[in-house]
TrEMBL record:
It comes from Nocardioides kongjuensis. It comes from the Bacteria. This is Uncharacterized protein.
Length: 81
C-alpha cells in the first residue's frame, strides 16, 4: 500500500486538494504532514494541482513502503515497493 507524505503548508494545498478528490486515496494528518494512502498507485496530475514547478518538485516530504516511478512536469506516480 503506497504512502506519501506532504508537509502541510499553503503552497502544497493544491497537491492535497487533488489527493482528497481521488476516491481511491485516503488523506489524514500525521504531525505537520499530510499522509496520502491508497491501495492502488497514487497518481497526482501537476496541472490539476495548480502548483508551479518549484513547489511541485519539492512537495514530497517522505514515502513509506513506496517508490516514486514518475515525477516529471506532468505527474507524480507513487507505487508500492
Amino acid at each position: 500500500m503506497p504512502r506519501l507524505y506532504v508537509l502541510e503548508v499553503p503552497e502544497n494545498e493544491g497537491f492535497v486538494r487533488v489527493a482528497r478528490a481521488d476516491t481511491t486515496s485516503r488523506v489524514d494528518h500525521v504531525g505537520p504532514y499530510v499522509r496520502i494512502t491508497s491501495a492502488q498507485p497514487i497518481v497526482i496530475d501537476r496541472r490539476a494541482t495548480g502548483c508551479r514547478h518549484a513547489v511541485w518538485y519539492s512537495a514530497v516530504a517522505g514515502l513509506e513502503g513506496s517508490v516514486i516511478t514518475q515525477h516529471d512536469k506532468d505527474a507524480l506516480r507513487v507505487e508500492e515497493r
